[in-house]
Amino acid sequence: MGSIISMALLFVFGVMLLNADVGSCGCFKRIFAFGDSIIDTGNFRTGSMWMPPYGGTYFHHPTGRCSDGRLIIDFYAQALGLPLLPPSGPEENTGKFPTGANFAVWGSFALSPDYYRKRYNLSMGHACLDSQLRSFKTVLARIAPGKAATKSLLSDSLVVFGEIGGNDYNFWFFDPRRSRNTPHEYMPDVITRIGAGVQEVINLGAKTILVPGNFPIGCIPVYLNDHKSNKSTDYDQFSCLKWYNAFSQKHNQLLKVEIGRLRSRNPSVKIIYADYYGAAMEFVRNPKRNGVDNPLVACCGGNGPYGTGHGCDQNAKICREPSRFANWDQVHMTEKAYNVIANGVLNGPYADIPLLHAC
Ligand SMILES: *[C@@H]1O[C@H](CO)[C@@H](O)[C@H](O)[C@H]1NC(C)=O
Ligand SMILES: *[C@@H]1O[C@H](CO)[C@@H](O)[C@H](O)[C@H]1NC(C)=O
C-alpha cells in the first residue's frame, strides 16, 4: 500500500519535474544570436546607447541596447523561459554561456570591408558577420570542444540569425553622392552571405534557426527625413516612402528564396523566416490598435518632422510616454514596438513556424 502511494507520488512528482523541465516552451536550452544594433545587447562598447535616456523604460539604466528597454531578442529569451542573453564580448575568453550568448554587434554589415573594397573601391572598417562567426567558433571550441560536443550543444540551441544586412544598405542610402539604384546590384551578394552564414551554423550542428528579414525602411524617421520628396506619388497611403519599402520587400523576397534553398539542402533542420517587415507594418497600418500615436515620429530626437534634427541623447527632446511611440531614436524602435514584433514571431502570424511552436 505504502509503496503504491509512494510510487504514485513519485509518478506525479516525475510528471511535475518533466513539466518544469519543459518550461514555457521547452525545447531550447540556450540561444545564440548574430546581427546588428537591432539585436546587440551590449557588445558594442561605446556610443550614445550607453548613456541615458537609453534603457530608461525597463532596465532604468543604459545597457548598450539601442532602445528605451528590451529588444526583440530579449522577448524571445523571456518567452522561452531563458535569462536575457548576455553579450559575448565581455566574456569571450572566459564565459561558459550556459544559456547561450549574443554575438551581434552594433553597426555590423553582412558583407565584409574586403567585399566593398574589391567591388566599389571603398575603404571601410566596419564590423561584419565574418567576425561574429569567428568569435562564435572561438567560444564553441572552449565550451564544447570537438565536433561531436559542438553538434550536441547546438542541437538543443536556438540560433537567431539577424536582422543582418540592413547596414549594407543604410551606409549607401545615407551618402547623397551615391545612386540609390546601386544597392540593388549587390543585394544578391548580401543574401548569399546571409545564406552562407546560416549554412555554416547548420554545419556546426544547429537544428533550429530563425532568420529575420529587413524592416520597412521607408517608414523609418531618418529615411523619411533624409529622402523627403515633394512628389506625393513617392509616398504610400501611410506616408511611408514607397521606393525604400519596395527595396526592403525585394531583399525579403530574395531572402525567402535563399531560405527555401537552405531548407531543401538541409531537410532535418528547421529554418524559420521571421517577417519583421509585416510585423512592423502593424504600427503603420493600425497604430491605434497598439496604443501608438504617430508611428512615423521618433520618441527621442529633435523638433523636426519625424522627430529628427537632433540625435538621441540627454539634450534631446524626449517624449513623456515611449510606449505611445513605435520609433525610439529615429532609427531603432521602442521596447513597445519590439514587444509587439516579438509576439508576432513567437505566436504568429509573422513567422512561418511561430517560434513557440517550433519545439
Ligand atoms: C580608389 O579610391 C582611391 C581613394 O579614394 C582613389 O585614389 C583611387 O583612384 C580609386 N581607384 C579607382 C580604380 O577608382
Ligand atoms: C521639388 O523638388 C525638386 C528637387 O528637390 C525641385 O527641383 C523642385 O523645384 C521641387 N518642386 C516643387 C513643385 O516644389
TrEMBL record:
Signal sequence, start to end: 1-20
**GO annotation terms (biological process):** lipid metabolic process
Instruction: Give the keywords, sorted.
Output: Glycoprotein, Hydrolase, Signal
Keyword Membrane (UniProt): no
Q: Which Pfam family would be a valid example here?
A: Lipase_GDSL
Please give the InterPro entries that the UniProt record associates with this protein.
GDSL, Lipase_GDSL_AS, SGNH_hydro_sf, SGNH_plant_lipase-like
UniProt GO MF annotations: lipase activity
Q: Carries keyword Signal? A: yes
Q: Which PANTHER family match?
A: GDSL ESTERASE_LIPASE (PTHR22835:SF561), ZINC FINGER FYVE DOMAIN CONTAINING PROTEIN (PTHR22835)
Instruction: Give the protein family.
Output: Belongs to the 'GDSL' lipolytic enzyme family.
The entry's protein name is: GDSL esterase/lipase
Species in which this protein is naturally found: Hordeum vulgare subsp. vulgare (Domesticated barley)
